[in-house]
Every structure is written in structure tokens, then in C-alpha cells.
Amino acid sequence: MRVLRRIALVLAAPVLAIVFSLAVTSIVLLTIKASPLDTFRTMFDYAMQPRTQVLIINSAVTYYFAAVAVAVGFRMNLFNIGVDGQYRLAAMLAASVGGAVTLPAPLHVGLILVTAMLVGGLWAAVAAVLKVRRGVSEVISTIMLNFVATGLIAYLLAPGRLAVTTQGSNNLGTKPIPPSGQVPGISLVPGTQAQVYGLIVLAVIVGVAFWFVLNRTRFGFDLRATGMSEAAAVASGVDVRRMVVAAMVISGAVAGLVGMPQLLGASYTYSLDFPAGLGFTGIAIALLGRNNPVGIAVGCLLWGFLDNSAQILNLQDIPVEIVQITQGVIVLSVVVAYELVRRYRVVAEQRDVARALAATTPQAAAVAEGAQS
Amino acid sequence: MELRGITKRFPGVVANRDIDITVTRGSVHAIVGENGAGKSTLMKILYGMLRPDEGVIEVDGRPVTFANPSDAIARGIGMVHQHFMLADNFTVLENVVLGAEPRTGVRLDVATARRRIRELGEQYGLDVDPDVLVEDLGVGERQRVEILKVLYRGARILILDEPTAVLVPQEVEDLFRALRELKAEGLSIIFISHKLDEVLAVADVITVIRRGTTVGTVAPEGTTARQLAELMVGSELPSPATTESTVTAVPQLTVEHLRLTAPGGRAVLDDIGFTIHRGEVLGIAGVEGNGQAELVETLLGTRAATGGRVLLGDQDITGWSTRRRREAGIGYIPEDRSRYGLLLEAPLWENRMLGHQTQTPNARGPLIDRRGAREDTERIVREYDVRTPSVDVLASALSGGNQQKLIVGREMSNEPAVLLAAHPTRGVDVGAQAAIWDQLRAARALGLAVLLISADLDELIGLSDSLRVILRGRLVAAFDPKHVTPEQLGSAMTGAGGEAA
Amino acid sequence: MSLTNDRAVDSEIRAAPLRERGFRDWRSVLTAVGAGILLLSVVRVITGAEALTSAGTVGAALGATVPIAMAGLGGLWSERSGVVNIGLEGMMILGTFGAGWIGWQHGPWAGLVTGVAFGAVGGLVHAIATVTFGVDHIVSGVAVNILGLGVTRFLASILLEGTPGGGSTQSPPIQPVGSFSVPGFSSLDTVEKKHWLLVSDVAGVVRGVTTNLSYLTIIALLLVLLTYLVLWRTAFGLRLRSCGEDPYTAESLGVNVYRYKYAGVLMSGALAGFGGAFLAIVAANIYREGQTGGRGYIGLAAMIFGNWRPGGLLAGAGLFGYTDALQLRSAAAVHALLLIIAVALLGGAAWQAWRRRFVSAAVLAVIGAGLLAWYLRTDSLPGQVTFVAPYVTTLLVLAVASQRLRMPKADGQIYRRGQGR
User: Fold this and answer.
1) In B246-365, which ranges are continuous DSSP H helix?
2) Which of residues 293-312 of C touch A (CB under 8 A)?
């Protein structure tokens, strides 16, 4: 019973939020005189096509790194709004390094990945140091660092610095990474030529590592304890400043991987049209997935589904942007729903404890009274 | 003002049951009771912060209902909160007029407000400069601002919730003088406290509350503190008296010339020195806010000492991190358990790990040992009588007493060498209190060294093997608990007793 | 969540916070402005970068300042009531669209009203999430940003596609709103052209702030003043600020905290919407996707920079606006900016040395000397340096002054009625 209720409570919030946002989306669709049911069916049918499924999975792989990066911070009450800048800077520099050298395949890929993680981690470390040394909120500093990263990338991505011009286009990009630095795709979905990013393996590893470190290691316990109550964590011997730096650097390092599936599996170069804004997607999905590795994976697939299957809507004369409304409403309603469920759970457990004790001892009412005053 | 049959239920508990109190005009009416007896709930009802489920409140013979504090204020009821309700970054004037601002048009009429505050201050001897920031005021002045706030709203009935808890004796005297002044002007005062000697000194009538209900109303004349205490507890007082001394000659915790200065350079701890031997309980008496919390934090390593040395056994631990100190066997029972001692949103077994997350049975190498921690939590729940359906419930679901028993059990579990116990029985019911005392005594018999900080003088005298008094960050007096009376201790705490023993 | 004073940081490194000060402190403001103009003037004469203090630059700076200041003012209303608002960007985006969509059809004033209303709707969403449901303020702000962008793009693709000269990412042009010149000041032109030390600079600055002022700029400046008067001189303002300082105290005195928080956050959204509308109506003449360019965040930075005070945030926004304008108008002036910063830093070093703070004096001197060398060895600066400058400046200011800034004490904390001490 108890276990069932707990599972129901865990699922209640996201399910509520998704239902609510579908309702809102339906209303919006009705106002533009489109049938919600038909629209959803069209999207679903399109998503069932093998090619679309690959696209969904590929989006999800990219989102997963972003969401885990954000979640590492969230678990400690740190808001790494700077995932965006961290992954773009990391991807750009890693692409430059990858394009500049030739190494045996595994080493080459490893070098690029390590460079990306280092750059992401170091960029995040700036915010961490500002926080522990100078008391600057990471929220503001990472937002500022996003803009600085944008400027820095624009400066470096110029001919004569790190960029080369591609023939036949005015796009600027880093020198392409040779095949030894590329990660081949995997034919995961039958019935299509399209391949899933090879780095899906890395995403799984990161997810498992995140779960393991958080729930099975002392470091993870310290991190979660700090997130739940900093005062109690300090009294228990946690060095909070060190934890802030560690969590922020880990978050940045994972953020550094965000651009890797695209870079090593598709574009092989960091150019002006490299996807931007994934950091904010990561925040949204981390919230939806409750900073939990499995929840985040589900959230990534949902996001990937919405983003990719919406493309079909253009043919139906429905603006693709409708899914952004759906996504926005999901984020907002999921956090509200989690808050409501949390309150309900606290009250329900207090009542359970009081009831369990009232059944066993006459003293219990007086004992429970202590909790109230 | 009259209360009849007030009853308030919370999910699963009855906080107040059939409370009857009559407060007459121009008197000081004290309400005493243990922590958790339901005083705070009653006050919140009186002030409109909570609504009673049953019962009637009458003011001047007419029944009233309060939906919120504004209604209570409108009926002439004012509350001086135990924890000051003042915005630090506002001036005295802004704090006083907030919610009842004099205006000209839409403008805040600062001149009128200033004049009124000065007038009130003169009338009742509550002198405070209206234009200083509250954060620059001392505790006594802040309390005056609180009272001014209430008077400014034209209150005829003042509720003071534990007003002396944070005051030094001189300020207590000032407060009592002001209260007599107010009484003479025909105001009624409801004075909530658990400090019986103060209640006897200032009250005209005393109502005792136990387990959420009124158990008696007495006059201070001809009543002793002992009688009041027995009314409060409902039976013979559980005695914290220690049976026999277990003090050894082996120093376990030695503190030498310990100093801690605040950012402004003021000394919070000044030349503190003492030794606790194995099997010894050293009690620190003092009015709250004289450096006790800082002393514990410095010993725990969450604050870095400015000077001096701390030795654990014969090891100098002055420069050690908190973690290293805890691994070396310093246990900690915090004063504010929900803030410093528990992860309220984590299950009990994770709370078992807190503070011992690097040690067996909670950890193996860099990994945590979930099974070990859970099994040991079940043992603590059994041995320390923590009332809970399982070790998987969140800590927030437990009552205060059970939370405290869990903390005591946890801190005793890793064979501590030294225990820093700050108010170990604060806010717990009598049963849990007795159990915690037993546990402390048993551990002490096994050689534990305990630093005990408490506001409960009986607890201090009963449990300690030796006593020190802390005043403004200095240890000013030492007593032998076998021969000292609470009165002697009390006067030393105020600085009146001089250097004793 | 706190924005500057941090729990992770012990009190030991926390310096004395800046005190609340009113607009009274005119003298120090005037001194600072005077010193700034003098410095600019000297550098202008040395470098010959006339754009540094030309009326054109000052006017453009004012125009660039307004949207940032409005976002910052929005942040001020919200945070003074205790709600952190990083959703300003999303509210601003809503404002740009509202102004563009109605503006091109019914004129700029109708556009302005719609922009403000759209921003307020964004504020309403944030208020419902944070105040009613007690959601973490940062989380809600991020969600509002996502939602604001999504709603705007969706609406634009429905409402603007196929409009004359418009499309799914931009609106048709909006009629210009009128502008206003204080009579008599335009003749200062001649003085400015003489390039006299200081005199011409003052003339340029005065002419810049008195001629060709958009009516919206004037309204915006009045809003800053009005905000000060309302928040610091009325009972309403006292109560609103009390909710940001200590909501449970306010509650105990019968203040309906929820209502004031709602007022603060709604006003915040409306002001951000005003800033967005200004961008669409005055700065660009059209709604264009992405035209806020992060100004909501910069406004927040300006507010923190200004220590949660209207005058301070105006100064902060002015700084951002000025570098922004300079970048658009003159490469030489941007290069001259290096010299200015170098001189300012060296001056600061001298001041610190005089105050016997030798470590910080040395740090400032080294950075100043480095910048001076950079100035002397180059003829121009890459555009990205000026792009980045405001953000780096904000980071530096926060790094230096974070512990001296005084945010509302209960800012960002979740308040629930009856859950106080």
C-alpha cells in the first residue's frame, strides 16, 4: 500500500502537468480552428515513423547531457543557468582541438571529449569561485558568463583565429574534425537509413554515473544533504565551499558534453549555426524529470517528441511554435504540481505517524502535540 | 477579556482543549506551561493567527471572532512576539507605523508618526530614537520597539510571549518596570512564560496550562515555584539528579584561552578555558546570547577560533575541519534540531547518517552502506524508543521529542569521546526528557565527556559534575552543582554574583 | 535563493553593507557625474574621439538606457516585494510583441498600452507560480522566459504572417511616436563644435538629454522618479517593501502580504513590458524576434549594480546604455574607452593607496597599466570587446561589492501565510 502510494505520488505531478498542458494546447488549437485530436494524432503518427524516431532519440541524447548538468547543480540548490555558455564554448574549443590534430580514433575522440569537459568545467568554475570567494550569486554570474561566452566565441570564430571559411557559403566554422575524431552512428531503429548518435552510449554512462554518485557515494550524500539543509550539512562536517566548487565544476564538465553528439556525430565542425539555447532546454527538462536520472531521460524523450513531431504541423498550416507553448506550460505546471504534491506528502506522513502511534500508545497524542507547537 | 472552552485541533492532534481564562483590566495575567503545552497555539488564536475550532473569545463582554491579526488589532489586542517581528533594514519609525500608517493624501506622514512615537515613549518610559535602523539596536531596545508598535495601534490588551527569554537581568527589570507603568494606565497584560520566578515576581494572576488545557489558576501570593512546576508537569517533577560521580582524572576535552571575535572586532568568546575529563559532565549556565552558541560552534569547528587551543585527549584539534573532529569522536546535539540536526525532507535512515556519513555502519570506503545505515537506524528506533512506523518516513513527520530521541541515539551510536549537548531536552515532552537524561547519564558512566548547555537550571544542576557561568563571552564563575542553588546560579548569570567558588 | 549575500559564505568576509539612502544624497551623485564628464572630456581632447561626449552619442545612450532601466525598475518592484524575477526577459519579449502587433495597426500609443499589458500578463503568471503556489522564484522565472518566448513566436506566426511588410518574425512598421526638444538648447550645437575642454562636453551632454527626446523616454524617466516616490514615500510603498524585508512581520501587523507581492510582481511585468514596447516602438520601429537580446537580464544586473535603489539602477542602466551607444557610433571612441578605464583604475589605485589599502591598490594599478599598454599598442578594438564589456563590468562590480550590497532581506524566500516563526 505504502509503496503504491509513493509511486502514485511520484507520478502524479508530471502526469498532472502533462495533462494540463495538453488541455491548454487544445484550447489554443481550438482558437485557431484546428482540431486538437487530429493534431495530436498527426503528430503521433509522424513520430511513429522510424526516421522521426531516430530524430527524437538524437535530440533526447543531446538534451540529456544538458539536463543532467543542470540537475547536478539543482540537487545542491545551485542554479547553473550557465550551461548554455559552458557547452557552446566547450564545443567550439573542443572542435578546434579536434580539427587541429590527428590521432588514432579512440584517443582522438577521447581528447575531444576531455577538452570539452575541461573547458565546460573551467568556465563553470569561474562562477563557483566568485560564489565562494566573493559571495556572488551563481544565478547572476552564470547569466553574465553566458554573454561573455557569446562574445568570446564570436571573437575566436573569425578567419585568422580559429575559423576557416567553408567554400560556397558564408558560414564560418572551425576546421572539420577528421574521421579519426568522429563517432559513427548506430543503426538502432529498423526501417530507416538514419542512425542514432554513437554518443548515446556516453549519455547512458553519464546517467548511470549520476545516479550512482548521487545515491551510493558519500560525496553524493554530502551533495544532497547540502541541498536539503546547508546548516545541517555544515554541522555534519560538509565543507560547503568545496562542495559548491565541486558541484559546479562537475555540472560544467557534463555541460561540456552537450554539444558533442552533434559535433562528433553530425557536423564535425563548430560553425555559426551550431545549435544554441540548449542550456535552457536542460533547465526545463531537469525540472520536469525532478533531477532524477530516469525522470530526466523520460523528459528528454518527451521534449524530443514535441520538437520533432511538430515539424509535420507545418503541412497542416498549424504553426510549429505551438509546441513551445506546450513546453512552457509543462515546465510551469510541473513545478507547481511538484510543490502541491510535496505539501500533500508532508501532511499525509505526519498524519500517518500520528495515527500509527495513536493506535499503539495512549501517550501518542501528547507526543504528537510536541510536533505542532 | 475572557476565553471559554477554546479548542484547537491539528491533523491528528488536539493542541488546545477547553481553555478557560479570564483577564481583568489593569492586571498582569501570566500563562505558564511547559514547552509544547499549547501556549503558542493559544496565543496565535488570541491574536487571530489561528482560528479556534470551538469556544468563545469575549472582549469587554462581547463575543468576537478574529479572522486575522488585523481583527485582533482592531479590538485593541497587541502581541509582542517572542522572536521579534521587526524588519532590520527599516527604521524604528517605519517598523512602528507599518500597517497603521498616518497619511496625508497618499503620502506617508512621517512628521506625525515621529511625534506620536516620541509622545508614547515619554508616556510609558519607552525611549527609542524613531529614526535609527532597527539592526543597530540592542535586544532590550528592540523589545521596546515591539511594545511601542503595539501601543501605537492603541492596544488595551498586550500579549507578551516569553518576553524575558532574550533579555539580560537589567533589561528584565526595565521591562517589568514598563509593564507596571502600563498596568497603572489601565492596560491588561498577558504574560506567557515558563520562567516561574519571573512569573511570580510580576503577575497578579497565574494560569497554568498542561497538555493543551487549563489545569489551574492561582495567585502568586502563597504559591511557590515548586508548586507551580508540579502543576505544570502534572506529577512529581522528574529529577535529573545524577546518582554518583563517574569523573575520572583523564582529560578528554581541554580548552585554553579560546577567543572568537565578531567581524567588528568585538570579542564573542574571550579567554575561555576549561577541561572536561572522561566521565564528566560540564554544565555551562548563562542567559541566552552570551556566547554559548558560538562556543559550541567553535568546538565543532564550524567557526574558526581567533585564538587559543582546543585539545581532544592530548591532540591539538584547533585547526581541524568539522569532519575530522566528528570522525575523531565529537558528537553534537544542536540547539535548533530542525535546522542543524536533521534533513527534514530525508528519511530517518539518511538522518542516521548525518554527521557520521564517513563512518561505519553508514559507509564503506567512498560508498555509503544503505543496509548498514538502515539496520542501525532500526536499532536506534528500538533502543531509544523513537515512535515511528518505519525508518523510511521523512524526519519532518516525527514529533519534536521523537526527532530529538533520534538525534541523541545517533550521536551516542558512534562511540563519541565528547558530546556537545546544547539544550538537549528543549521542546520535548516530559517522557522524552527523562529518557534523554537517562541516556546521557549512561553514556557518562561509560566515560563520555559532555559539555552541557542549557537554560533549564534544574537540568544543569542535576546532570552536571561541575558548572561554569558564561557572561558576555567570558567564563565568570564556577560552582559545584552539589552545593549550588538555582538562585545563586541565577545571580552569577546576571553578573551580580561575582566570582564564586 | 539569495542573489548576493550567500549562505555558503561566512560572515567573516562580509563587509559593512551600504546603507539605505534617499535621493537626498544629491551631492555625491553630482560629484560623480561631474568627475565622469571631466574624465571623458580630458580623454576626448587627448584622443580626438569627439563621439565620446557628442550630443548624438548621449542621445543614443539615453535611448539604449531606457529599456534596460525599465527592466531593472521592473526587477526593483518585484524584488522589493520579495520575489526574485529572472522572468523579466520573457515579460519584455511579450512587451515587444504586444507593442508591435497592436502598434502597427492602431498606432504607437495603443501599442504601448498593449505591450505593458502583455508584460503584466507575464508578471501575473510569475506571481501565481511564486506567490500563490510557492514555487522557487528562479525556477518560475526560467519557465516564464521559456513560455514568453514560445507564446510570442506562436502568436507572431499566426498574427503577423501575411501582414504588409511583416512576417512570422517581424511586424510591419509602427508609426513613430512624437519627440520633444527643450526649447533653446539646440543652439548649444555651436558650442559643442568648438571642441573646448569641458565646455563643449557639457554642451554635448546637455544637448543630448534635451533634444529629440522621445515621449516614451520622458515617461520612462518619470516612472523612475515615480517609483522612488511610491515605494519610499507612501504607506503603500512601505508595506510593499516590508514584504520584501520581513513578510511575517508584515503579516503580524495585518498587511496582506500576498496582495502586495502580487502588486509588486504585476508592476514588474508591466514595466518590463514597457521596456519591450520601447524597443519595438522607439528603438526599432517594428517588432522583431529576438530584439530584446538579453536586456531583461541586463536590467536585473543594473538593479543589483544599483543596490536595489531606483537612482542606482538608473546609473547602472546608463553605464550599459552608454557603452552600447558608443559601440554603434564610433570605433575610435570605443578605443578611447580603454584609456578612460585605465585612467579610472589608476585613479582608483591612487585612492586606495592613500587609504593605505595597498593590496587592492596594487591590483588596480596592474590592471590599469595593462589596459593603458593595450590602448597604446593598438588602434582599434575588436567589436566583441565592447559587446562583452558590460557583462564583465557587472561581474567585476559584483565580485568587488557583493558583500556591501544590500538586497531586501527576504528576497527570493517563499512566503506562506501563517508559516512564520
Assistant:
1) 292-300, 322-327, 348-353
2) 294, 297, 300-301, 304
Q: What is the tens place of the pLDDT at every residue in A36-94?
A: 999 999 999 999 999 999 999 999 999 999 999 999 999 998 999 999 999 999 999 99
CA angle C275, C280, C285 (to 5 degrees): 145
Contacting partners of chain B (3+ CB pairs under 8 A): A, C
Pairing between strand B13-22 and B28-33? unpaired
Residue carrying the nine cell digits 550599459: C320
Q: What does the alpha-carbon distance between residue A299 and residue C159 come to, in Å, rounded to a whole number?
A: 31
Chain C residues with CB-CB distance to A20 below 8 A = none
**Chain C residue numbers touching A321 (CB-CB < 8 A):** 150, 153-154, 156-157
Measure the CA–CA gap between C411 and C418, rounded to whole angstroms. 18
DSSP 8-state code for residue C16: P
* Cα–Cα dist C343/B21, whole Å: 74
Nearest to B41 by CA among A355, A371, A349: A371
Cβ separation of A369 and B323 shorter than 8 Å? no
ipTM of this complex prediction, to 2 decimal places: 0.85
Nearest to A331 among C146, C156, C400 (CB): C146
pTM exceeding the 0.80 threshold for the entire prediction: yes
- Model pLDDT, residue A362: 43
Mean pLDDT computed over A224-252: 94
Closest CA to C147 of C158, C136, C139: C139
Contact C133, C414 (CB under 8 A): no
Least Cα distance to A88 among A164, A169, A145 occurs for A145
For A297-349, write each residue's pLDDT tens digit: 999 999 999 999 999 988 888 888 889 889 989 988 898 898 888 888 888 88
Residues 6+ apart with CB under 8 A from C248: B85, C415, C420, C421
DSSP string, C295-320: HHHHHHHHHHHTTT-HHHHHHHHHHH
H helix runs in chain A, sequence order: 2-31, 36-48, 50-74, 83-100, 105-134, 138-156, 200-216, 218-228, 230-235, 240-256, 260-262, 278-288, 293-309, 322-360, 364-372
